[in-house]
Structure formats: structure tokens, C-alpha cells
Design a protein that fits this description.
Helices cover 41% and strands 20% of the residues. The chain has 5 helices and 4 strands, in the order βααβββααα. The longest helix has 16 residues.
Amino acid sequence: LDVGGGTESLETLERAREVKRAIKTQSVASSLPYHADVVAGSTDYVDFLGNKRDSYFWLRGVYFCGAPLQIDMKFSTVDAPNAGSVLFDVVRAMKLALERKLSGAVLPVCAYAFKRPPQAYPLEAADAKFIEFVEKGV
């Protein structure tokens, strides 16, 4: 469950935005090393939250002797800066790409920063490819 008062939450509510929700869900699910039922993306717009976002996570599993386990978590953030660090990385990497006279989709950057890159990699591999691009230009 993910609720927010920002424009992203409002836009995601429009049923035409189901594609955006599907992309977010697929992005999260693909990063897991196992199958799990996953739903990602804003589930509601709550105007009084303003630029805040509350995300709720439910984790179910088993522990000793197969006994069931459930963990409920709430994660509250200011929504606007959530992607800031990744966007800074993208801007710096694109500056390097321009200096190296690259054009088109720069695959290591896309795989590192975007939910649906032209070529996807597991999270650790995407991070490694991004670092290699920045440090070595590969």
C-alpha cells in the first residue's frame, strides 16, 4: 500500500496509468531472487499528505519449524527528493557520455537508473556496470 499527496500519486490514480503501475511492479519483482506476489505504485491520493508519501510493506514468511511470520512496516518520506540521488548520478553520467561522444540509450546508465531499461540486469550487475561506465568508460 502506497499513499501520497503529491502529483505522482494523483496521476497514478487515473486508470490510464495502469501501465505505470505495471512497470513499477515488474521492476520490483524482477529484483527479487525468488517469486513473490508484488504490487507496486501509488494506490491512493490523499491530499492532506501534501508532498509526503507513506508506504506500507507486508512481509510474510516462515521461521522455526515452519511457523508463520508476518512483518508490517510503514515507511514515511518527503516525496520530492526520493529519486534525487539517482537523478544526480544520471546527470553526471550523461555529462561523461557527452564528453565521450556517445549518443542514444547509454545502457549502463539506463539499467542503473530506470525502471524499464532497454536491457535490464539484476540490481548488483546494474550497479557494477554503471560504476564501470563512470570509471572506465565501458
